[in-house]
Amino acid sequence: MKYVLVTGGVVSGLGKGVTASSIGLILKACGLRVTSIKIDPYLNTDAGTMSPFEHGEVYVLDDGGEVDLDLGNYERFLDIKLTGDNNITTGKIYQSVIDKERRGDYLGKTVQVVPHITDAIQEWIERVAVIPVDGKDGPPDVCVIELGGTIGDIESMPFIEALGQFSYRVGAGNFCLIHVSLVPVLSVVGEQKTKPTQHSVRGLRSLGLTPNILACRSTTELEENVKEKISRFCHVPLDNIITLYDVSNIWRVPLLLRDQKAHEAILKVLNLKGVAQEPALGEWTSRAALCDKLQEPVRVAMVGKYTGLSDAYLSVLKALVHACVACHRKLCIDLIAASDLEDETSRENPENYKSAWKLLKGANAILVPGGFGDRGVEGKILASRYARANRIPFLGICLGMQIAVIEFARSILGLLDANSTEFDPDTQNPCVIFMPEGSKTHMGGTMRLGSRRTYFKVEDCKSAKLYGNQSFIDERHRHRYEVNPNMVQQLEDAGLSFTGKDESGHRMEIVELPNHPYFIGVQFHPEFKSRPGTPSALFLGLIAAATGQLETLLKKGVPKTWSLSNGTSGLKSHRYVNGTKMANGSLDGIYCNGNGIHV
């Protein structure tokens, strides 16, 4: 087994996740089988209880693992299926060691960070690295490990010590360390400054790790004399200094690595040059070129609770891009704070209220993503009502589906107090209720999580056609409330159609309005399985409906894999906030006008 470790220095948010994903992709293109591990040094057991404002979205895996959003990047780039064990946290490591101590596995020894914690980290990496994630038999060839945070952080010290021991134990020919650092350009002098990288590498060496390759983030390509200076002071060969400068879209990052022969440097360190082939990235190159050519816009209004941080909806944004490029449209998305649509805002902040409604009414499609808590719920209900009444294409995900059902009950059934027991425990018309198997005392890992099967109950419906007229589908879930099965008949008699249900037939999974151009709500999260070449069926349907292509799409059927003639995905890589260009560490930037983002 070969290991590639990606670390970061100077500042956080340099784009280690995209860099690690791109490295994995280019190695896969060389004919190698690749898996990935993300190390997060926080004490949480997993990302499940963390606010999206703290750490971005919680990405959900097939096995129900609630993990860091970087694992979403790995899955999308490499087209693999990871498990919860591919995300290591301090909480998981300490819990496993404490459990062993309680069982008496250490035979009376004093349990310490070294060797017990560090050994547990190494054992975890070795165990997970050999698990196949590409659907094939046998272990992968290379494991790409990303160490979260920044070198020097106190919480990452046990991991750095463990990885130092690990590199020595597996041997130099089996371990490659790539350090991502920052080379800033000071506006006053316009010069690329190498000192931050020098200090970062010095700190890394002092902790027992020596970088084989330096990946330097900068706004522009590194000048030759700057690379020579970094090589001289950091003791890294000149050919192993890679520039990660701003590019037109995220899909160009692997091409950037290939053009600088990063794969050759990695393969040389890992003694794989005689095994691997030249990277086959023809399709990826065409995909990146196509991304830059899109001009005709489609406007999508996303009404959510966490609009202050676009990473809170990262997978949704990616899925929208995948669908937009498949439909040959440039995505312009407006993030609307749901609370800004409410009547209370019209009194307290009329400008925000007016702006939010202007964006909503100017959209070609409306999307309401998942969320928790009652803030902004009434605004989401208003957005659903506007989409239903004005026949605007609508997609509701998780909570978005639930509020669509609540709005229908209020407006069509006349049940004005219809609500979810999450927001009003005493409502007389509970359209959405707490699931019986859920826990009201423990938050972490107690939801209905992971891949679950949905059976189509109505053959002639849009969702079934979009999924290729399959009898069932498997999608990922993350919820603890569900549509009240006791109200289903009443809602269906009024015109709502529950076209998809779970295996029991009592849990509602998909809801549609048959007489609407496109009005679909789903309890699951289809965004988590969207891929660049295979956009999510429901996101594809939403964009197709918004651009007048849905009828054609449904007639010819949705292919399992979209060829380049249909398009793939891409994101602009600079950020503009109120007209100001900002650095974007994830290499996955956005265009922002203060109210929304343009991708």
From TrEMBL:
Residues 2-272 form the CTP synthase N-terminal domain. CDD domains: CTPS_N, GATase1_CTP_Synthase. The keyword Nucleotide-binding applies. Keywords: ATP-binding, Glutamine amidotransferase, Ligase, Nucleotide-binding, Pyrimidine biosynthesis. InterPro entries: Class_I_gatase-like, CTP_synthase, CTP_synthase_N, GATASE, GATase1_CTP_Synthase, P-loop_NTPase. It holds the Pfam family GATase. PROSITE patterns: GATASE_TYPE_1. Its EC number is 6.3.4.2. Residues 310-543 form the Glutamine amidotransferase domain. Pathway: Pyrimidine metabolism; CTP biosynthesis via de novo pathway; CTP from UDP: step 2/2. It catalyses: UTP + L-glutamine + ATP + H2O = CTP + L-glutamate + ADP + phosphate + 2 H(+). The keyword Ligase applies. Catalyzes the ATP-dependent amination of UTP to CTP with either L-glutamine or ammonia as the source of nitrogen. HAMAP family: PyrG. Belongs to the CTP synthase family. This is CTP synthase.
